[in-house]
Amino acid sequence: PEVALRSGSARPMPAVGMGTASFPPAPGATKDAVLAAIEVGYRHFDTAAMYRTERPLGDAVAEAARCGLLRSREELFVTSKLWCTQCHPDLVLPSLRETLKNLQMEYLDLYLIHWPVALKPGPLTFPKRKEDAVPFDFEGVWRAMEECQRLGLARAIGVSNFTTRHLDRVLAAATIPPAVNQVELNPAWQQRTLRAYCADRGVHVAAYSPLGGQNWDGTGSNAVLESEVLAGIAKARGKSVAQVALRWIYEQGVTSIVKSYNKERLRQNLDIFGWELTDEDRLKISQIPQKKTVTAWGLFSQEGEFTSVDPADLDIV
Ligand code: A2P
């Protein structure tokens, strides 16, 4: 299954995509995992300048084309993202060109602003202090994103980690409105306010950390994979907890960007079609307490200065 995007000439976005954020970067493992993913049927890949996985993703795609796993680039939906240090009007196009060079591709299907935070131009690093941020010229940066689409280098453009407040600003400046907002979203962090806002404005929502993320903060807990509610539903349906989470996301009309570097789990995560949750399952999932699941990332965390949390969503159960 796929969803058509409102703007751009991107091919429709397959409802499940493979994420490639893995720290520290492991180019060999990324390349192997992407090849395994292509083999088991993934046609949607998500990367970012920040992840340093553009190159191994591009290498894997080139190899897949060489050995006949893919007929052409056109079969794929590829997303990448503009990092905070690149969020300056005159750096957008050169950053996209660099991304395309890394990927060995002529165009992206979707180019996103990674965070609504601008940092001084320089290496692709995380901000350490609030003072590292510089004023974000939303209008200028969005115009440059629009130019990328007009030039055909990005078939659609969008944003990531934007709250309704940030989206208001971009929508007010946009000639081409953002096609997508990619945010952290899963049964334990459902973001209903944000989703309703996006639905009203034709912005498609994509979910990262659909399984609760990769234990970024080292606490060893995961509100999705360890959810008793989801475990009960999984048992009753004869599915895995991951499949229940991904199926729920799909039923909400949201695309999942799910990361696994394991072939069996890659296969499992794609196998969420042809069955449904029941109304009772959906009701139970709607009652899961809500909290942003990725708790690391300092300034980007729930309490952080650059949080992507809409306070309204914290109270919704
Ligand atoms: P692995 O790569 O070893 O499969 P996210 O929510 O960000 O997509 O996080 C996915 C995390 O959960 C990864 O660390 C991944 O590890 C793991 N994972 C992915 N698919 C499954 C699955 N079907 N069951 C259990 N864990 C999974």
UniProtKB/TrEMBL annotation:
<dbReference type="InterPro" id="IPR023210">
    <property type="entry name" value="NADP_OxRdtase_dom"/>
</dbReference>
<dbReference type="InterPro" id="IPR036812">
    <property type="entry name" value="NAD(P)_OxRdtase_dom_sf"/>
</dbReference>
<dbReference type="InterPro" id="IPR018170">
    <property type="entry name" value="Aldo/ket_reductase_CS"/>
</dbReference>
<dbReference type="GO" id="GO:0033707">
    <property type="term" value="F:3''-deamino-3''-oxonicotianamine reductase activity"/>
</dbReference>
<feature type="binding site">
    <location>
        <position position="114"/>
    </location>
    <ligand>
        <name>substrate</name>
    </ligand>
</feature>
<dbReference type="Pfam" id="PF00248">
    <property type="entry name" value="Aldo_ket_red"/>
</dbReference>
<feature type="site" description="Lowers pKa of active site Tyr">
    <location>
        <position position="81"/>
    </location>
</feature>
<keyword id="KW-0560">Oxidoreductase</keyword>
<comment type="similarity">
    <text>Belongs to the aldo/keto reductase family.</text>
</comment>
<dbReference type="GO" id="GO:1990641">
    <property type="term" value="P:response to iron ion starvation"/>
</dbReference>
<protein>
    <recommendedName>
        <fullName>NADP-dependent oxidoreductase domain-containing protein</fullName>
    </recommendedName>
</protein>
<dbReference type="InterPro" id="IPR020471">
    <property type="entry name" value="AKR"/>
</dbReference>
<feature type="domain" description="NADP-dependent oxidoreductase">
    <location>
        <begin position="16"/>
        <end position="285"/>
    </location>
</feature>
<feature type="active site" description="Proton donor">
    <location>
        <position position="51"/>
    </location>
</feature>
<dbReference type="GO" id="GO:0019290">
    <property type="term" value="P:siderophore biosynthetic process"/>
</dbReference>
<dbReference type="InterPro" id="IPR044497">
    <property type="entry name" value="AKR4A/B"/>
</dbReference>
